[in-house]
C-alpha cells in the first residue's frame, strides 16, 4: 500500500457537502488500488475569516507544501466582502503553489442532457488549458481617488515569456497525446495586442517542435459563440487566466451543467502539491439543502488520482460516474444519494 498525504479544504457553502461525497468515492476506490490517503482537513474559508481575520496564513501554506495533493470544495460567502477569500485563499494557493496549469476538461458524457440541439458526446470533448498564475489575476493595479467622481481603477494583465511558454508547452503535450492533435489558442490579439502577440509568437515557436499538432487561433468573443454553435471545432485549447475562467463556465453549460465540471490546478513540475476542485463556486443559493451535485468534485477526484499516478483508480471513478450519468435521467437525488450511488458502483 502506498500512502498519499491529502490536504482537504472543504471551504464554504456547498464546498463541504460536495467534498464529503468526493472523499466517500475516494475511500471506496483507494484500497482496491493499493492506496491509502492520509488526510488532513484544513479549516479555511468564511468561518475562519470571521473568527480570526485569516484567509490562508503562512503557517498553513507551509503545511500545505508538505502534502502530496490537495482537494478543495469552494470558497466565497455573501457575509465576506467579495474577493477577500477568493484572492486571499484560492488565488493565493494557486499562485504560491505555482499552479500554472488550470486543467479543465469539457466532456459531454453519454446520456447527459446538453442545451445544444443535435449534439452528441463526440462533438463535445475538449480540454481547456487555462493559464493559472498570470494575466489579469495577479492583482497588479490600483485605485486612485476612490469614491470621488475622478476615481481611476486599473487592473493590469501580467504576461511573462516564461509563464506563457510553460503553459503553451503543456498544452502542446496534451494535444500531442490526443487523437485529433489540435491546439487552439484563444485570446483577443486584435485588442490586447501586447499579450496576444506574446502568446502568438510563443505558440508559433513552440509549435515548431510539435509538427504533428495542428494549431489554430480564435478570438475569445467568437470562441464563446463557437462553443454553442460548433463545439466540435475544439480539441485542446490554451488560453489566458481570465478568458479560461469565462469559457470554462460556458463549457460546463454545454457539457451538462456546472455541477459536472471538474478541474485541476496543476503544478506540472511538482515543486508543490497540485489542487483539485470543481469548477463551480460555493453556490450560496443552494447551500445547506443537499441540492448540490457532487459529480464535479467526484470527477475532480478522478483527476487527482491520475495526478498521483493511479490511472486505473481514476478510470474506475470515471466509469462509475459515466454509468451513473447514463442512468440518471431526470431523477432528482440529494447530494449524498449521488455520492452513495457512485461510491457503490466504484466498490462493486
Ligand atoms: P457558483 O458556481 O457558486 O453558482 C452559480 C450557479 O450554479 C448557482 O445558481 C448555483 O446554485 C449553481 N451551482 C453551482 N454549483 C452547483 C452544483 N454542484 N450543483 C448544482 N448547482 C450548482 O458561482 P457564483 O454564484 O458566481 O459564486 C458564488 C460564490 O462562489 C462567490 O463567492 C464566488 O466568488 C465563489 N466562487 C468560488 C469558486 C471556487 O472556489 N473555485 C469558483 C466560482 C465562484
Ligand atoms: C474559478 C473561480 C475563480 C477564478 C474565482 C473564485 C477566483 O471563478 O475557479 O473558476 O476566477 O478562477
Ligand atoms: Mn470561474
From TrEMBL:
Cofactor entry: Mn(2+); Mg(2+)
EC id: 1.1.1.85
Protein keywords: Amino-acid biosynthesis, Branched-chain amino acid biosynthesis, Cytoplasm, Leucine biosynthesis, Magnesium, Manganese, Metal-binding, NAD, Oxidoreductase
Matching InterPro entries: ICDH/IPMDH, IsoCit/isopropylmalate_DH_CS, IsoPropMal-DH-like_dom, LeuB_actb
Location within or outside the cell: Cytoplasm
Residues bound to substrate: 94, 104, 130, 221
Protein known as: 3-isopropylmalate dehydrogenase
Record organism: Thermomonospora cellulosilytica
Top-level taxonomy: Bacteria, Bacillati, Actinomycetota, Actinomycetes, Streptosporangiales
Gene: leuB
